[in-house]
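Sample pair:
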Amino acid sequence: RMKSLTAALTAAAAAAAMASGVSETTFPLPKVDFGDLLMLHEDTGVEITHHLLTLGGIQIVNIPKFKEARETALSSLAECLEKDSKNSVQTVMNDGSKRLTTGAGNLQGVPQEMTSICGSVSNNLRSVIDTATRQLLKLLDASATPSASEVMAPYHSFMDLSQNGEHLEHLHSYFAPQAHEHSKQILSSSSKPFTMDLHTDAG
């Protein structure tokens, strides 16, 4: 959930650097082991808070079952979404590429059903990510200062804030444009030939 915000911040910084004629700047994200989140050490929470405030994100590594769940969720997604196009959202990008999307909300901590049956295989992935996110929030709550609670009012903690929010969880699959379609797009459009413009998500 924080990854999209991190990517947006990094992309915005890179765009600003290129626009001003200076070299591109990269922001490597610090890695945090999932096992360290379980320890709930205040020092770890303070360090993570610093990274989130200064860099916009962290990498949580060694999350149990994450690799397997991701492979299961994504291995046949593109083929499935094409077959179930009536239940997926189709978007044509600036360069003629096609994007198919299935998604679902997560209301007060309860994941909703994906719009396409293709998303059902992502249930384990959603659960694994939710577990890691909850553990991160527990650690942030354990190391939060009194001023943090004041900012979050009327909620009492990061966990409380998260559980009372509505989250969008979605899966995208991208398809390259056909050669003749791509040529038409270049001739008929003055837009930049990028699949997606720089943008900011509600990460």
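DSSP finds nine helices and six strands in the chain.
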